[in-house]
Structures are given as structure tokens and as C-alpha cells.
Amino acid sequence: MGARQLFRGSTHVVRSPAQAAEMVQLSNAQPEPTQGKFGRWSNKDLYPTLPEHRTWNLWSFFAFQFSIALSPTTYNVGASLYAIGLNWWTILIATIIVSVMVAILLYLNSRGATWYHVGFPTIIVAILYTAIQTLYASQFMAVILRCVFGHKWTDVPNRLPPTAGITSSNLLAFGILWLLQLPFAIIHPSKINIVFRIKSVLAPVGLIATMIWALVSSKGADFQGLGTADAVTGAALGWSFMKAWNTIVSNVIPPLVNIADLSRYGNRPSQTIPMPVGLVISKPLVTFLGIVITAAGYKQFGDVAYWNLWDFYSSVLDKYWSPGARTLVFLAAGIQAFATFATNLSSNSMPGNIHVPSLYSTDPYSPYFFYKGFNLRAFGSWIAAVVLVVPGVSGNLNPGSVGVAATRIYNMGFLLSTVTA
Asked: Domains of the chain (ranges plus CATH)?
């Protein structure tokens, strides 16, 4: 029977998550067909995952989380951190520390879903970040089309006004990329782990090959030229380091929040242990590769720091316009486009389900009922965590509008909010 019916049909009151998990595990019967039973409030993917769909294994979870960091948001994080006075090795140390912290939270967040086999829908976040990651991937698509069509692509007239923030050719690339990733979005999550396995192999190979080429062709790298601010020392270094934590963790939030939507396809919590390991390895690696490639490009392309990888590839085409260069850039940009929309699938598309039926139950013994249908502890935790950083948000949007203390609290927002909540 389904988990909801199991709880309601039992003569025992469910008093803890552990007891509920035990009841679910003791029920070996095939879940009853429930699709459409709750009308528009339900679909089959909102119920506990059927045993035949629990296809993710150790390698699947490792490949998934290892591949998450292989994205533009991790690659170019160094740009923000150089701007606050850090250098490459302090950035790397901050990335390692944050990766370990987040890996622990990631594993803890994944355990509940591997016990109960239910997800945690986040539709609003999914809509926002799907658009952002699709835009990133479309930038690589524009590079690919330039490799194929040459000046015919770059000479496409722009019919859009400057206020659009995008050119006609880039909008076309966006549409093409969206059409290419659409078929992957309709594949059931239980069958899509092969995509992350492929990405976990191709994407790092593409980045490492790009780094080797950049270092060889430029005969080294210029790390000093990347700094847009004077190097900080003393107390200023400490506060910049804390701000770096906040910056680095910001692009890990989507998978940290919605990991339940994928860990539900495992059989037991121990299968997700390789997942935090993959994060700790890949995030510092990609950050380091991004810094090295940018520093090598800075030395080679006229003292310009191309923190976006698609800009780096475009500069390669500007300088080395030959069949060989176009072929290599085509392959490299193709790998990164694939890697980016694979990130889109895992972090945004699949976590977009809405309406968990159990949340609408009026049964006082429902595991989600709490106090008259409200989880007061959750509300209190959220308010306490958010209130701490609200003044700092104002200061970030309007520099100088709040005091130094509020700004520093905001720069420590993730750590303070997590501990407070």
C-alpha cells in the first residue's frame, strides 16, 4: 500500500520519523495505484517511489554530485573572490572548507528521502534556475554555431533593442539549446542517471584539456593580473574569507535543497555516501581549473580576464581561426553545453513537481500535521535565520545604507543562518 494509506490504516500513532520509516520498510506489498485519486493535487511521482524505480546506486550518486560542480557558476566563482582581495590559494582553501561543510549537510538532507522515497518539490526555484542555466548553456551553443557557420553566424543582424539584454543570434542559440534539452526533461529520473555518469567523465576531461592547451599556448599563466582589488591582510582578510564562504555556497544551494528529489531513487541511505565525496573532489577542482584557464588566457589574450568559459573559447577562435582550432573548440564547447544542461536537469527540471498530498491531509496523526496543520518550529527557524541577514541584503543592494556590522553579518549569512535555524 502507499505510505499515506499505511500511516492512516495503522492502529499505531506515528510519533517519530524513525517509527514512520520502520513502518514503510515493513510494508513489502506493491503500492496501491493512486494516480488521480486526489485529483489535481496529485500525480504518480509525488507518491513514494516504487521499488522497480529505485535504480540509483553508489556510482550513480557519486557521478551525479561530482558532475554538479562542472558548471559555469562554479567555474567563474574566482571572479567574485579576486574582486574582494583574495588570491588563488586562499580561494582554493575557502572552496575546500565550504565543500566539506556543504557535503555534510547534503548527506544529511538526502537520508530522509532514501528512507521514505519521497521528494521535496521546489517549483519556484526550479523555474528561476532553469532559465539561468539554459542561458549559460546557450552561450556555449552560440560558440558551437560560430564554429560551424563562421562569419555567417556572427553577421546575423540584431533586431532586438539594447534593453533586451540579448542579441538576435544569442536568442536563437537559446531556443536551439532549449529544444535540445527538452527531450531529456521528460525522461523519468529513475532512468536518467546515465546522463550524469557520462557528464562526470566528459566534462572534467574537457576542462583539463582546455587548461593544458591554455598553459602550453600561453607558456604559463599570469595570476597577478587577475586581481581587481588590492590583496587584503589581517582582519580584512578574515572578513573577505567569510564573504568567500557565502559566495561559494550560493551556487550549491539548489542541489542542497532539492537533493531529496533524486536520493528518493536509492534503496538505502548508505548508497548516498559517495555523493558528498564527489562534491568535495569536484568543486575545488573546477574552481582551480577556472582560475588557471583564466590566468593563462589573461597572459595570452591582451591582459583581459575571461572568467566566462564561452568568452575564452570565443577568444581562441578570434586568434586561431583554423579548421583544427574550430574543431577543438566545437568539441570543447559541446561538452560544456551538455554538462550545463545536465546540471539543469538535476538541479532544476526534476525538482519542479508540486503539491505533496500529505501536506493537505486534515488527519491529526499525519506526519505533517504538527500543531493544527502548522509546523511552528519550521516557521520559527525560517524567521530567525532570515531576520539576521535582511539588513545586510539592503546594504548589498545599496552600499553604505547600513552599518559595517550588518554587512559583516550578511557576509557570514550562510553559516549564521544555518546554525540559528
From this structure: 54-352 (1.10.4160.10), 377-421 (no CATH)
